[in-house]
Amino acid sequence: TEHLTYAPNVAFGPNELGLIREVIPLVESRSLKILSAVPPSDDPVLAESKPFRVLSHLVGHESPGSLHHLLMEEGWVSSLSSGTGVAASDFSLTSLGMSLTPKGMRERDQ
Asked: Against a cut of 0.85, is the pTM above it?
């Protein structure tokens, strides 16, 4: 199956990529969100293989040896989630969200 051809527009230009935004909330909050632009989820090839679902399962699974388990064992996160954050006609954003512990906030750049 062929991938769809998308408009020549890109979701984000070079000046919008690789940015870290730090926000000072009004109430205490420790979260980390990582977003990645990917092809739209209704692309026929992606619809068949469901990579977003596989990624979500791999990241969110809590079995020993998993990413979720490792981050919990290190005491860095209290929760973790992943999935498609935004789905548009010519791109999607895959999202990884974590609620950080105080230790995780201190060591977030590790």
From this structure: no
